[in-house]
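Work Package 3 (structural annotation) set out to generate three-dimensional models for the target panel prioritized at the project kickoff. During this period the team completed the workflow that converts sequence records into discrete structure tokens, so that structures can be stored uniformly alongside our sequence database. As a representative example, we reproduce one entry of 303 residues exactly as it appears in the project archive.
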Amino acid sequence: MNSVIHIENLTKSFGNITALKNITLNVEEGEIFGVIGPDGAGKTTLFRILTTLLTPDSGTAHVLGYDVVKDYKKLRPLLGYMPGKFSLYRDLSVEENIHFFASVFGTTLEENYDLVEPIYSQIEPFKHRLAGDLSGGMKQKLALSCALIHKPKLLVLDEPTTGVDAVSRKEFWEMLKMLRQENITIIVSTPYMDEARQCDRVALIQEGKILKVDTPPGIVGSFDKTLLGIKSANRFRLIRTLQRYPHTESAHPFGEFIHYTDQRSEPDVPELKEFLHQEGVPDADIRPIQPGIEDTFMNLMQG
């Protein structure tokens, strides 16, 4: 496969803050590639470099065969970029926005309607509504339509599902899978670990460093510890007590359970249960559970 994005030792700082630290990364043609990490991890800085809006301090980045610094004029027409913050013209209507962005790239809605139709048709009944008056999910669909209107080779989506409801998030990922059938490579960032499962491959990023790159099953499969799920009616006391247990390596809340790993190769469950009972948590329910991407991410952060 051909690399659509090839990054080597990319570094970017803002004053005393290093946002990206020697990033090396490849994204292959036709992938949905996820960059997964919390706020402040460096996702937006990376995407702004890839879309020629920032220059790196050191290292190189090639997108679609072009150097993002030297060849930015050739590269920009080949990219579709959807920034994290809604950046369309709020005082223009839906229809006016998409016609404007089509004209910027020397095309028309009619010329590329087949590509955007599955998405744009959902908001076309509201084409006379001002963009600023749309719901979060509708703004998302309009922004994606505008990013696609010129048939880009690479779609760069910076946290596109942040701030929208669960139904709109699900619909959005269905739209991305549909776009992959149009031979568009997609790189998407998100702080939502559950969305990593929608990608072909993901990069876990924290504090400007890539922790791991793999398929979602590969990420989960790299978790090499026994993971216990522990719950109690008094969840706060449970987690505080686990923090005092001398063999605790990690204890993180996930829904109704605390996900627990032990410093030893295998936890001693009867001993742990007895310790919790003596410390005022007599109803602890302890069971082995399968790790998720979140568990791997937390484990890599600790390592």
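The mean pLDDT is 93.
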